[in-house]
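Researcher: Please predict.
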Amino acid sequence: MAKDLEIITGENQTEFGNMQEHTGLFKEFWRAFRKNRLSVISCIILLLIIISAVLAPLLATHDPYRINLAKELQKLPPSSEHYLGTDDMGRDVWSRMLYGSRISLVVSFLTMIISVTLGAAYGAISGYYGGRIDSLMMRVVDVLLSLPTMFLLIILAAFVKPNALGIALIIGFTSWMRVARLVRGQFLSLKEQEFVEAARALGYSNARIIFRHILPNVTAPIIVNATLMVASAILVESTLSFLGLGVQPPQFSWGSMLTNAQDLILLKEAPWTAVFPGIAIFLTVLSFNFFGDGLRDALDPKLKNIK
């Protein structure tokens, strides 16, 4: 009975020690992250944008799809009925901004997941095995990087269903190569470390060494790269939607809202139909970039020592 109590007490102490260690790491991360004020402000802005997208049905004042030609191009200043005015079909711009953010954010996060997953796995295998395998795999990456990205996107958009998942697949399959290069470079240095040699000596499989022992040590640069990739995906999705290759009606995103407002006469008479979606894209992309910079400063021990 006493031995059982000792075992239980020891397990509890181990769990408590792990909790203290994680708490200490989080405090250290937050201490380094909050030094970059722009990153903290960007984090708050991104949280507000994400919360607004999630709560769009509650925050929207009108049906974003409802056409009311009697109220087309309602001018600013904002009224109590239409906060940001209306577009050329009388649809409420504020409500469409909220619902459009959903498509833009879903596409960008799905793109990030696809490209990071594919790029991390590809780069890990290439960097771990090295030799001819690494040389062949990197030549494939070089060839893909040499191709014009927009040209590839336009070709793929012609064959993929233009919904949120389809657009995310298109952008994801044309943006994983830089993640692969990043992970491959990290693996080339980490695979020679003592903990990897110890894992090999214990007879662990290559798959376990790659994904259980080395890859967790590459999470910091991957996370930073992922935040920057979300920002890039928002821009690419907006570009595709502006060209008419993005999500198709009745779905819409910030990019497709810009498409609807690209007529010169409409821009002259109702500039707010293009200004507000443009500001939303600009602010979101800028916030993700500053947020990524803050993560890099907080997660990179070399940069923390310099500062």
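Model: The chain has one domain: 44-52+97-306.
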